[in-house]
Amino acid sequence: MLAPTPPFRVMIIGGSYGGLSAALNLWDLTQARLPRFNYAYDGPPPSQKIQIQTTIVDERDGYYHLIGSPKSLLCEKLASESWTRFQDIPAIQSPHFKTVQGTVSKVDCAAKVAHILNTNTGATTAEPYDFLIVASGVRRSYPTVPQSLRRDDYLEEVKKHSGRVRKAPGVVVIGGGAVGVEMAAELKMLEPDLGVTLIHSRDRLLSSEPLPNDFAQRVLATLREDGIDVILGQRVVNTVAIDSEGETRVWRLTLSDGREMTTGHVLSAVSRCIPTSTYLPEETLDEQGYVKVQPTLQFAGDIPHADCHYAIGDITAWPGIKRCGGAMHMGHYCALNIHQKMLSLCRGGSPNFKTLAASPAVIGLALGKKAVTYTPDEGTRYGEELSKTLFGEDMANQSCRDYLKLPEACQYEGPNELIGE
Questions:
Q1: Where in this chain does the record put each FAD/NAD(P)-binding domain (predicted)?
Q2: Which residues pair with 255 in a beta bridge?
């Protein structure tokens, strides 16, 4: 028989792929069910329930499908499907879940208290927790991600952005990383008569990623096959508006070799990812601001209550390409380990933690009607059928929602054998 405990208070900072994965897998486990991602779970379902209260804090008012940004910022229909307010997600509609639109200004690991500025009320409150999951990711600039924090504002942002792009006589995308190549490809697919140019400062696309050359060459070939003009090895050193009539502008770009070109619209896909970790103590971070974690995803170093503090997703100082699949995988392991810690607190004994292995170099890009992927086992693959399988028609929006089981109502069968009642 498990010793009774008060409800465990779980605070999750960030309600995207990793945060929701952790929240929902932990909810399953504490309700004596197999986790919804049960590929790493050993043994039968838990035999008894544990009482928890989960609070999710996010700057946005909902879950945003970040993978779809290169297309959703240009397509109003997809945009509408890509942002779901937390209050409209069936999986977290329960008194056991609380969502707060706001920002965390400070975390006191010793006191286990987070200071939250509520966007809607303007009030700052000190919220105690028993377990903290940091999943707030990194900050990216527009148009890599939308800047709006509310769904209605986001839809208006997309309407204005897509309108400006469509009215332009041509578009230049600056930056040949994952975002830039997808942005150029999706734009060309949506507006096939629009002239699209992609400019990258290095001699190879995706130059900052640990990927083989044949993958980068396949991406380049796919873009050019679709009619995109790709300029490599040139930096844009100056951008000047030279003509403006109403909402239409003409821009003159100067390249590092002295060449000049004009275009109707410029999209910058060159943005340094900045970790959103300013609310955490300095000793929890590396020199770039990423959270140092152990393979158990607990905070690393001499941190008070480190075994109750976890970080997952893009904000972690963990090797590998930052991906939504990796964030959800981390959220799953985080849930398993927190559940183990809860069990050890209730009944004694040592928790059986899962440890995260180094992430292999894996990537999948949606390039218009085609996809290009790389895994160490399969190498580089590409094609239209691959795109249909991986991304469908909505940049994998519904696939991610279904994988997280967001459309399914939160299951709660009452306090039978509930620890903490």
A1: 8-331
A2: 236
